[in-house]
Each structure stands twice: as C-alpha cells, then as structure tokens.
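Colleagues,

For the teaching module next term, I've prepared a clean inverse folding example: a structure given as tokens, and then the sequence designed for it. I'd like students to try predicting residues themselves before seeing the answer, so please don't circulate the second half yet.
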C-alpha cells in the first residue's frame, strides 16, 4: 500500500467529485483505492520536496503559483491502482474552450426559453456561456471535462453548419 498525491486546484474539487461524490466513489470502486480530499480551510502553502514544478492537469509545468494544502488530494492503495486513480481524477478537471458561433445563430442555439442550450448542457454535462447580446460577439465558452467539451464543441459546430445550410436554402428560395 502506498499513498500518492494528486494536485488539483481546490476550485475544481466540486466538479471532480460530482453530485454527492458520485464520480469519486466510482473511481475508488473501479481502482480499489481510498481518496482523501483536503479540508476546505487548509490554506497554508504546501511544499512537495520531490520536484520544483508541479504538472498541472493541462500538462503545463507550473512553478510560480505555490501549491496549497487545500489543492492536495491523497490517494491510498496499490501503486498501479493509485496511478490509474490519479489519472482518472485529472481527467475530470474541467477545461474551457472558446467556440466561434456567428452572432446571428445565438438565438437558434439557445432555443425557445433556453431549451436547446440547456439540452446541450444536460446531454454533454458541460456549461455553455454565450456572449452578451449587446456585445454582438461570435465567441462562446464551453466548460467541462475535456472529452465532454470536445463532444459538445462538435455538436455546436454541427448545429452551426445546419443553420448555415438553412440560411442558404432560404436565400435560394427567395429568388
């Protein structure tokens, strides 16, 4: 039995845990490990003497921002199981990507009373932030786990293609 540490910023812990801890429970069950999240108020700096920089979930080596105790998740179990569980936790860290959606299509993406955008968020377990209507921007943000964000981005881009072809059809029929 070993205990390893997984560094995930505290602001992502709720997302990583899932509703009622369901995602973490699934990882502990699948990998036969124990996972201990830090107390919310453990704010003091943490110094890992193994190396100077910490590998972040996005692959960047971060040296400037100090790691705090509230960012350190401890995983206990067999070495290979702990590493697999650590990777599973890191895969749950949310990312945000920007998607280019022409402003004219925002109403169609949102749908009546937000129905379509909520459906996308439910299907892909992501969060979509559209740019404010008064700014007329084409940039929108999708946040969630990397795999879900990529799937949602493809779905939004596909919907934009459909809307573009409908627009072209209307233009042709108007002549």
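(Answer key — instructors only)
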């Amino acid at each position: 039995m070993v205990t390893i540490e997984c560094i995930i910023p505290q602001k992502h812990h709720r997302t990583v845990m899932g509703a009622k801890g369901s995602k973490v429970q699934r990882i502990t069950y699948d990998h036969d490990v124990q996972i201990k999240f830090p107390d919310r108020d453990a704010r003091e700096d943490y110094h890992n003497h193994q190396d100077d920089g910490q590998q972040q979930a996005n692959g960047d080596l971060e040296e400037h921002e100090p790691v705090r105790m509230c960012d350190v998740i401890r995983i206990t179990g067999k070495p290979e199981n702990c590493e697999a569980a650590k990777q599973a936790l890191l895969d749950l860290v949310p990312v945000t990507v920007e998607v280019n959606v022409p402003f004219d299509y925002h109403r169609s993406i949102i749908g009546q009373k937000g129905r379509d955008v909520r459906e996308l968020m439910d299907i892909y377990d992501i969060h979509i932030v559209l740019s404010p209507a008064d700014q007329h921007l084409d940039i929108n943000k999708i946040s969630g786990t990397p795999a879900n964000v990529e799937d949602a981005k493809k779905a939004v881009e596909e919907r934009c293609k459909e809307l573009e072809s409908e627009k072209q059809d209307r233009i042709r029929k108007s002549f």
